[in-house]
Sequence to fold (562 residues):
Amino acid sequence: MASLGCSMSALTFLFFVFVSLMSSSSEASIKKYQFDIQVANVSRLCHAKPIVTVNGRFPGPTIYANEGDRVLINVTNHAQYNISIHWHGLKQYRNGWADGPAYITQCPIQSGRSYTYDFNVTGQRGTLWWHAHILWLRATVYGAIVIMPTPGTPFPFPQPDREFEILLGEWWNNDVEEIEKQGNQMGLPPNMSDAHTINGKPGPLFPCSEKHTFAMEVEQGKTYLLRIINAALNDELFFAIAGHTLTVVEVDAVYTKPFTTQAILIAPGQTTNVLVQANQVAGRYFIATRAFMDAPIPVDNKTATAILQYKGIPNTVLPILPQLPASNDTRFALTYNKKLRSLNSARYPANVPLKVDRNLFYTIGLGQNSCPTCLNGTRILASLNNVSFVMPQTALLQAHHFNIKGVFRTDFPDHPPTPFNYTGAPLTANLATLTGTRVSKIAFNSTVELVLQDTNLLSVESHPFHLHGYNFFVVGTGVGNFDPAKDPAKYNLVDPIERNTVGVPTGGWTAFRFRADNPGVWFMHCHLELHTGWGLKTAFVVENGPGQEHSVLPPPKDLPTC
Fold:
């Protein structure tokens, strides 16, 4: 029988809202959490295995906070792996020490050690998420962050009767770290996942999974807010509910102009809030998710399901399956993303930079380097502007803050060293890819435009890119090669979508803008874990501004050491 598994989560949420409403609207509170990183035995798809968890839970606990709150999360590592946790989408103003990516803003928390992430939630409300940011541990170490508006501030859309968090993920029957290690040793992509999951459960279309099915009970005539998070390692996903229309109202904790759709597309790292009305014939309806891939690259294309069940309907009623877009439906992907617009209201304006101080153009490439011990004598790597990023052994923010020499170079190229027909015929030639820990230095408060250009080096592919420490405005996107003479004239500079993770379309480009007003060292990387491991990443060193109030905060005393 399907588990009506969100009851405790919903009760926790309702209690949190009640307490929040009872507090003074002028008073920010302190929220404290304890995260114990521990190994727990979990069974899925007829396979039992030990996995790394937070507090023994998979997925992990939800962080609840109000806009304006201070949050303290003490992480104690009881597992055999080093760990760090990233609070994905939180801007961490001047406070990169709490951002979490291992060897970028901190050294990892070693086994037997603890570290307290201490940060303020300023000027943000909505759905974000947290996850491990080292190795492939985020396969099982992840959870939701729900930030409510300041007490007394309503949503800019109809108030829902209830909320559910929906975390989409991937499951491997074997040890994920061993699978990734084996792939690296062979110089090839590791084995793809054995299933997708919804709140950690693959659903009844998989063997031994009838009891591993998430179900949400709804009442006729009520409206529900679904906070959807793509926590998958390597797959962009379609999501739909049979017979029910979705109204998109928020992405990446930024309100949108509402629009209705039968399905959404959500890339790894992204969040999407939708309203769903329980206005259909009372019954049981499948919630379904499946991978989107419009390039000739194999993916896990199996469909994970959960159940939307009307109150009073017995479990013996067979659910109806939704019609998801075809797995390679490029038109749906492009059309859906064009519908995303910032709300751009008086209360929630879209402050798009209209003047640009620094223009960056980064090409995304895959390549092969010689590897005598690998299966084919080569190893796959990935690069931006022909530079494949090498992770340092000292955290970049520490090296920057304490002026430690020799850890990184600030000569990452603003443009590709060798222009070519980026999306023309497939190119198998290696452009002599360079490796190194190279970053870009950005002046404080300057405005930046970055164009990310996919290429046909080995293969075109869609890439979701995440920038830590910032939101940005997606001012333009297109298929083919970016044309600097013509394409900027088509930019949306009025109400472009604002977010922290954006998909670069297969064989296309995406342009975004941001103001560099958050000093520190901020990671930018493809959120396909496979590509991040291959080197598809870099970082921005945003210089301090005038005075202490525009400079990086002093590091905490319990900051982990390498």
Notes: The chain has three domains: 30-148, 162-339, 358-550. Residues 1-26 have pLDDT under 50 and may be disordered. Helices lie at 7-22, 176-186, 330-339, 396-401, 529-534. The two ends are 48 Å apart (CA to CA).
